[in-house]
Design brief:
alpha/beta; FAD/NAD(P)-binding domain; Cholesterol Oxidase, domain 2; 2 domains; eight-stranded mixed sheet; 14 helices; 23 strands
Amino acid sequence: MATRLAKTDVVIVGMGATGGVAALPLTNAGLKVIGLEAGGWLSPRDFAPDELRNGSRNWPQSIQKAAQEAPTVRPSSDKEAKQGGHPMMNAVGGTSMHYWAQSWRLNPWDFNVVTETRNRYGVDRIPSGSTVEDWPFGYDELEPYYEKIEYTVGVSGQAGNLQGKKISGGNIFEGERRRDYPMKPLRSSPFTKLMDTAARGLNWDPFQGPAAITTELFDGRPPCQYHGFCNKGGCHVQAKSSTAVTVVPKAIDTGNLEVVTFARVTEIVVDDSGRVSGVNYLKGSEIFFQPADVVLLASYAYENVRLLQLSKSPAFPNGLANNSGQVGRHYFSHHQGAPVTALFERDLHNWYGLPAQGVAIDNWADDNFDHSQLDFIGGANLWVHTDRRPISAAKMSTFGKTSSAWGSDWKSFIMKNADRTNTAYIQKTTLPYESNFLDLDPVVKDSIGLPVTRITAQYHENEKRIAAYAQDKMEQWYKEAGAIEVIKHGLGHAMEASTHAYGGARMGLNAETNVVNQWGFAHEVPNLGVLGAAVMGTSGSRNPTLTAQALAWRTAEHLVSSWQSIAG
C-alpha cells in the first residue's frame, strides 16, 4: 500500500534538462511543484579534471543508470532483441549535466519537412514508409522560447541571421533571431582555425557552434577554463549551463519547488474519469503516492514512453494516453554514425579543449542545398572539434600502419601521431518510419521487475544516402585542410539506444497520429503533459536539447495561462 502524500499543483517526473526548465515559469507563477528525480544532487567535486574518472569510467557510480534498465534493441520485428548499454544517467540536471552542451536551434525547414519538400521537389520525394508530419507550428512560434532559454541558462555563440541580416562568422542558414547570443562563442583552437580556413577555401560558410557554456562571467558563474574534462560529465567550475546550476536553484528560491531525489516513478495514476490524479514512486523500499492536479513527464524519451506504456488502467488498457495506439510510434534517433577520420602530417595542437569548442558547416544540412538531382531529403551538419587527451589518443586508429593495437610499432605510431588525427562528428537528418517503434520488452525486466523498453528500429535508405553524401563532403574538407589519409567508416544499420532519441509521444493536431497536442498535453488525458524530445517529430541535423527546453518553457507557460481548463 502506497503512502498518500499531500496534494500539490504539479508533479514533474524528472528534474533534468526539460523538467528543470519547466519548473521555473511554473513556480514564478505561484504554482506549487514537486519535482521527482531518480538520481541525486551532484557537486563540482564529483567532476574533478580527471580523464580516467570522467572520460573512461564516466560519472559517479551512484547516478549511472543500472544495467538492468537498459533498453533491448533489434533492427526489425523478426529479430531477437538484445540488451545493450544505457546512454543516460540519473541526477538533478539529467542530460544537461553530461551532454556536450551544443545548443542548436532547429532550422525553419525542420518544422515543415513535408510541405517544404513537396513544394520544392514534388509529392513523391517523402521516403516510402516514413510517417513524418509537419509540426503543428513553425519556427517563428518557438523563436521567443529559444531566446528565453539562451538568456536564462546562458548560451554562447554568434548570430548568423540577426533580424533578417546575414552575418559572416555566424550560421547564415539559421532562422531569423531577434537578439544575438548573450555571450560570445567559445574560443577557437589552432586546429579549428585550420579547418575554418579550409572551409572558406572551398567557399563554404564555417562558424563557431553555439554552446550552453559560459565564455564570460554569467549569472554568478565563471567562464569556461577549457580543461575539457566535461566530455562525459559535469563541469567542476559550473561553466556548463546545466539546469542543476541555473533554473532549478532559481525555482527552489521561489519557495514553490520541492525536489525529491532518488524517487523512482513506477506508475502514473488515473481516476475513474480517466484523468491523471498523481504518480506512484519508489524511494528506498517505500512506495508513495503523490497526488497532483497536473502531471508533467520530463524523463528521457525512453523513460517517458515506458511510463506511459506501464501505466495501464481500465480507461487505458494499452497504456496511458494510448487508446489511439500511438505511444511508442514515430520513434527515431539521430544518425550519428558513419564517422570520418583523418590523418595529418603535422601536429594539430588539439590537446585538451572540449567537444563544444568546434567549427561547423551547415551548407549541407537540412534543405540548405539543392536536392533536385539527389536521391534523399535532408542533410548533415559537419562538426570538427577540439578534444584530445592521453587515454583517448591511445585508442586512435593507426590507419592500417600497424599490425595490432599493441607492441613497439603501435607505441611508435601513437607517439608520433597522437596529435595528428581527428574524427568528425556528423549529425544527419533522420526521419520516423512505420517500422521503427518503442514498446515494452516481453521478457527482460529491470531490477524491480518492470519491463524495459524495447527498441525496434534501423536506419533506412534515406539516412544511409545522407551519410554517404556527408562523408564525401567531410573528406573534401579534411583534404582541403591538408589531411594525407582519410577513413570513411560504415554507414550504419541498427539504431542503438542513443542520447539523441526522438518520438514515441509525438506532438500534432491529429489525435489519430499523435499523442500530445500542439502544447504538449495528451489528446486523451488533458491534465497530462509530456516534455522532451519524445514529442518531436523531426530532428534536422541538430542536437535536441535546446529545442526540447524551448518546448518545455512553452508548455509551462501555456499551463499557467490555461490552468483552469487543464487542471479542472
